[in-house]
Specification:
42% strand, nine-stranded mixed β-sheet, alpha/beta, ten-stranded mixed β-sheet
């Protein structure tokens, strides 16, 4: 194995081991613990760059030591604000808070459990009717701790069925000229980060195939599974943290732009086998796999015949410590 692959691989192995141990309840670890210690990944990246051209054993040992020390800090060092192995600590978009059994800053009629954690149990259905002649639409999605799926089409412009366990979804509809702007976001309340479809929040989304879509997803600890192959997608933007994104795209328009910016995530993008596609990356310590693409320069990959194609897809990948994969289907 090349030495420049050891550090990204080690980081991914340690992350995977941590989450696997958490899944089997060997440890009680929260994804969002990474946010408190995010500068550690800057240190890892900096040390890796400093010794990038040093192939000696001692330089490799230093890089490995920094990674192991960083993960030790993330897993075992408490602070005055949180302790990742304590069940009394919870996280929302504003940061960590300690549950002393009597916390509830809720401003509605939601009930709380015996420990003071606000829970909103139930489901909601949101629909937006399709207006004939609508040629373009925008969809904005925000909120973490959720499983988002897009699997089916609808005769409506938009529909979503949500399962609400720990926070509540809010849907709004505005207009930008003649373009409808649909927003599905999670109300900011205290709760757990959890995307288990049986025990956490989920949103099953359907879209109309007629308009050209601009889709923007902003989420933290999230799982996203989108099959967008039936749709005409002009722009698709993902901003995520520690997450898992699986996206299947259809044929590109004259120009289709896909932008993915993540922290510590698994990203898989499927593109049609005959689609003209260019990938550009700024991936830090991330690993990447682009089978069927030719390398055209530093961090640039293209399918054969890309320059002469009429319709083109541009994929921009940016991540800290992520696993990027673009595959053809």
């Amino acid at each position: 194995m090349k030495s420049d692959k050891i550090i990204p691989g080690l980081i991914l192995v340690l992350l995977g081991t941590t989450f696997l141990l958490d899944n089997y309840h060997v440890i009680n670890f929260h994804w969002a613990s990474l946010w408190r210690f995010w500068p550690i990944f800057l240190i890892m990246g900096g040390v890796n760059l400093v010794f990038a051209n040093n192939r000696s054993n001692w330089a490799l040992a230093v890089k490995i030591g920094v990674v192991l020390l960083g993960f030790a800090l993330i897993l075992f060092v408490p602070t005055s604000r949180f302790y990742p192995f304590s069940n009394n600590w919870h996280f929302n978009d504003k940061g960590w808070y300690k549950d002393n059994g009597d916390y509830d800053d809720d401003d509605d009629d939601d009930t709380s459990d015996s420990k003071g954690v606000v829970k909103v149990e139930g489901s909601s259905t949101y629909t937006e009717p399709f207006t004939p002649g609508t040629t373009a639409a925008k969809l904005n999605i925000s909120g973490g701790g959720t499983l988002y799926t897009l699997k089916d089409t609808t005769s409506e412009l938009f529909s979503a069925v949500t399962k609400e366990r720990y926070n509540r979804y809010i849907y709004t509809h505005t207009m930008e000229g003649n373009v409808p702007v649909l927003t599905l976001h999670m109300k900011d309340k205290k709760g757990h980060i959890q995307w288990d479809s049986d025990n956490g929040n989920s949103a099953a989304i359907k879209l109309n195939v007629n308009p050209v879509w601009d889709i923007n997803v902003k989420a933290g600890a999230t799982e996203l599974d989108f099959d967008m192959s039936p749709y005409k997608v002009r722009n698709f933007v993902i901003n995520g943290g520690a997450a898992s994104f699986h996206v299947k795209l259809g044929q590109p328009l004259a120009t289709t732009n896909v932008e993915v910016s993540t922290g510590v995530s698994e990203v898989e993008i499927k593109v049609p086998a005959n689609a003209a596609c260019r990938i550009t990356t700024n991936s830090g310590l991330s690993s990447s796999e682009f089978n069927g693409f030719d390398k055209k320069g530093d961090n640039v990959y293209e399918t054969q015949g890309f320059g002469a194609a009429t319709n083109k897809m541009f994929i921009h990948l940016k991540g800290g410590v992520s696993d990027f994969k673009v595959v053809k289907y």
